[in-house]
Design goal:
By secondary structure, this protein is of the alpha/beta class. It has helices spanning 5-34, 37-48, 52-56, 93-103, 126-143, 163-176, 197-212, 225-228, 231-236, 258-269, 292-305, 342-351, and strands at residues 60-62, 65-67, 77-83, 107-113, 146-152, 183-186, 220-222, 245-252, 274-280, 309-314. It is built from twelve helices and ten strands. β4, α5 and β5 (146-152) form a beta-alpha-beta unit.
Amino acid sequence: MKPNTNTFLTKKRNATVRFTFLAFLTVILISFLAIPVHTRADASSEDSSPAALTAHGALSIRGGKIVDQNGEPFQLEGVSTHGIAWFPQYVNENAFHFMRDNWGINLVRLAMYTDENGGYCTDGNKEELESVIDRGVQAATDLGIYCIIDWHVLHDLTPVKYQSQAEDFFGRISQKYKDNENVLYEICNEPNGGTTWQEVKSYAEDIIPIIRRNAPDALILVGTPNWSQNVDEAAADPLTDVTNVAYTMHFYAATHKDDLRQKLENAVSAGLPVFISEFSTCEASGDGKVDTESADAWKDLINQYNLSYADWNLSNKDESSSILLPSCTGTDGGWTDADLSQTGLYLRSMLAGK
């Protein structure tokens, strides 16, 4: 029987349309599968945990307080690494990602010792240390959180000892990260051993302009004498003609009690921008007993004044300040209660606002 021409043409057109549509879907599917897996994962993680950097942008100091790009008060909350020469394995995106999404950190601090064995200014491998810093900055940037690059003065006592190295380091590193709004510079961790505020202030007056040539608006943290405790001296004689500079106070709850808390209150009341760039629940040695009662008093003060802070430290070193137990071998996050020390459990609770 001769086919109906109209029916035949209609079926042919329909078949052509179906083929074209299926071909279109095939192209879309192939294009989707061609997207790298990490790109889709990143998009998913950003949807589930909004990045702090996207919401708050570049930070600054206004009225003695840290504010975000909208001029609103902002609190940085996070964790400091131990020395990156000894525990570089914890500086990785997976670990930071886990703590961001599960604990609520928006800050990591990269502690680079300067004078100790493996220190940047002694026998440390400068190239390797700077590569760890780069890995940490890139991970923090990709995750939309903030990052402190810490020139970790300790056994050197005074930052003046290695000032020429600091000038070179901060000149190059601030040039490298000049476009990273999430990078903060801590220019001397804990001046001690009789180092005066005048020495620290003079050092800061030399280092800050070097950073400012590359990063004119970056937040800079300046240590204070006596292991970053004498913020009263900085409050009485602060740096002049500087912007976006805060002064650090460190405490270890089992050692430092009401007298140091009062010193902090006095400095903040005097209008000094204070940043708690290092603290822990234990004794000042970084080990010994944990004092949660004193830690609670510090936590209340931190919240009262909306102070930013970084807990010491992200490692499994066998000491009380480590947030991971020595038995924990995982370095990429995914840590359970069984992996956390008493300090680690306290930090997680503090970040959760409990």
